[in-house]
Amino acid sequence: MERSHFLCTLCEKRFATSSSLETHKITHSEEKPFCCTVCDKRFARKGSLNKHRRIHNGEKPFLCPVCNKQFAWKTNLASHQRSHSGEKPFSCTLCEQRFAHQGKLRDHLRRHRGEKPFVCTTCNQSFIRKDTLRDHVRTHTGEKPYPCVVCGKWFMTNAALNVHKQTHEGKRQLHQCSVCEKCCCSRKSLTQHMNIHKGKHSCSICGKCLAGRIALMRHGNTHTGQRPFYCTVCGKHFSEASVLVKHGRIHSGEKPYACHICKKTFTTSGQLLYHQSVHTNERAFACSLCSKRFKDAHALWHHKRRCHSVQTKPYHCPYCGKRFFISSELKLHVVTHTNAEPFSCRHCARRSRTRRTLKRHLLVSHSEGSWLTCHICEKQYVDIRDLNSHLIYHEDVKPYVCGECAKSFHTASELKSHQMVHSDTKPFGCIFCNKMFKRKHSLPGHFKKCSAVVDLHL
């Protein structure tokens, strides 16, 4: 009897035993009886489920004898060992290029033939690899099946999780944009970010440049008003499925993200990550120019752009022309012109201009959320930034020194306000009498008196 006597009539693959053939046939059927309890993914074979579980539990039982790198699957170890030996046993019959892995050869041949057999049913974008499509679909659904066992944050891909783990191991390498100095966590993220400067994905309506095709498609919904995803409870519509999922937690009360230190739960992973800074003073990201340290790469980028960049402020107000370093600052400023109140309370009719104002209202009026309390004087704050600013006064550290009189201050804003004493500049003016003031807070009181006088003469 031949070693591969048992033939699959569907794919012509051969097997040594009839039981192996029967197990293989399940892969051609829709039957997937084995389910992962973490992410609900289903499998045709129990062995495949056991291997998949290693993604979630982090188990890597296979060790490379050369470099001690660990792997979850034996096939991955075998493929990795070729990086040491240089062996490339798989050859392309069209261009003679050789590959260490059979999967790489398969993908390469598809590029020759122009094949992209895996198509996204949401946006019709096609892909060469099935796993690339799977990762892409999560950008529509918002699914994040890969959790960090240290801090509880969840990620869309295993690669993103591995990059994140480096922050806990102290090995994280930042990749800086040469144009705007933004720091990215991976080379891939930097490449996508550079698309913004190159104008590779630009909106045909407003000209805005985006990092990728998906981001451009999402941005397009802001012009078309298309919001295909709606809440079955309140009828509110959304442009993305992931936003609808987060919105649904308002109605269900679900808070799937828990702090591993105090067990407090949160609606989104972003809220959890922000909360965890309360428990730790770790600041792993240092500015190379002034040695100031930050808790995340985004804060470091903002600092460099605001304090060390020689470029002009890229964001300008369409109403008054005032310029800003950061888009979020521009959004807050524009509200002063439009008087818009985009943040609404879910308990009453109260609306707020800023998220911080709404948060304070929820705490004071509805006892929703928790105050941040100073451990020295027990004064309470809504925002962690306000609490940190307050703690500076207890430490009695005044690192900001005036170059004119050597007076020192706790914060940069205090120093900036003080420097007006030495300046003859008066940037704030009354619209009725044209009197000018050095400080903005001097204007409202004067304006009230001056407008009353004008009313008497009318």
Query: What is the name of the CATH topology of the largest domain?
Result: Double Stranded RNA Binding Domain
Number of alpha- plus pi-helical segments: 16
**How many β-strand runs?**
32
CA-based shape? elongated
Q: Which percent range fits the helix content?
A: 25-40%
* Average pLDDT for all residues: 79
Give the strand content: 5-15%
Classify the oligomer: single chain
- CATH level-two architecture of the largest domain: 2-Layer Sandwich
How do the strands of the widest beta sheet line up side by side?
1-2
The number of domains is 4
CATH superfamily of the largest domain: Classic Zinc Finger
Radius of gyration: 29 Å
Task: List low-pLDDT spans.
Answer: none
For the sheet with most strands, the description reads: 2 strands, antiparallel
**Class by SSE composition:** alpha+beta
First-last Cα distance: 112 Å
**Broad CATH class of the largest domain:** Alpha Beta
